[in-house]
Amino acid sequence: MLIDSAYKSRILRGDKVTTIRYGDYEVKPGSEVYLVIRPSDTAVAKVRITKVEKKKIMELTNEDAKADGFSDVKELLQELSKIYGELHGDDEVTIIGFEVVKRFDDGIPLKWLKGLNYREPGEIARLYLENQEKLNLNRETDFIMRRIYNEGLGKAVRTFGPKKVQNALLKVYHGLYAEGLI
Length: 182
Prior knowledge:
- The protein is built from eight helices and five strands, in the order βαβββααβααααα.
- It has helices spanning about 10-15, 60-65, 75-85, 110-115, 120-135, 140-150, 155-160, 160-180; strands spanning about 1-5, 20, 30-40, 40-55, 90-110.
- Strands 1-3-4-5-2 form a five-stranded mixed sheet.
- The longest helix is centred in the last third of the chain and has 17 residues, at about 160-180.
């Protein structure tokens, strides 16, 4: 789910627990999705969808605004108009409620998640360590996976550089896949 970076801290603090999307937005309560901030395209959390509600613009309330991180419906409508252009009272929106189930303090580039078939780097590192004898990968890849597992993705990227970390993750992912482990 894409979110403007301006809302990141409000979401992670729990001040913003909904997002309001123009039109009929399809998502199911109970599903878990990555929260990706724009414009960096970085996943900062995994969220569970708690509710999906359709409303017309004229039906939005101060309660809806507060759940979305705004002081009142007037402020909410001003922001929605900036994003979607001129809105009319009978325009439909979808209110999506969510709760953060996992934070990614270092963030995960969306293109990395896509390349790993939406597996988190920490999970790839854990699976590598549990199955390293079956994979027979080089020493640098081993060091990178251990760094991700023990100290996090951010530390691994700062130590080895983003390209080496991304390549190591892809190599391990494909090795795990070839062995039928994921």
